[in-house]
């Protein structure tokens, strides 16, 4: 499995998580906005050249870990994030 570095980019009220696979220039992204103290996961975007490698899953895992560490809740508006939450009932503690 190729190493993937996840970075977080925030500004007031919104942000993104970026996934950088070691063997590619392509970047996967998970975007969010904040509404009423909840971070709404809006879009998971993975370019085709890095698709099918678990990049989107790693992005969601990073957001869940960040939510636990920084005490916020996630509303999964993105269909991929919603499906990931359905597959991981152990994430219920951070789901809004």
From TrEMBL:
Signal peptide: none annotated. Pfam families: Acetyltransf_CG. It comes from the Bacteria. PROSITE patterns: GNAT_YJDJ. SUPFAM superfamilies: Acyl-CoA N-acyltransferases (Nat). Residues 9-96 form the N-acetyltransferase domain. This is N-acetyltransferase.
């Amino acid at each position: 499995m190729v190493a993937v570095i996840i970075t977080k980019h925030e500004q007031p009220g919104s942000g993104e998580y970026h996934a950088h696979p070691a063997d590619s220039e392509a970047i996967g992204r998970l975007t969010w906005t904040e509404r009423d103290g909840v971070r709404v996961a809006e879009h998971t975007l993975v370019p085709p050249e890095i698709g099918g490698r678990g990049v989107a899953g790693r992005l969601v895992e990073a957001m869940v870990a960040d939510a636990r560490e920084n005490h916020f809740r996630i509303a999964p508006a993105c269909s991929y994030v919603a499906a990931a939450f359905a597959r991981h009932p152990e994430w219920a503690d951070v789901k809004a």
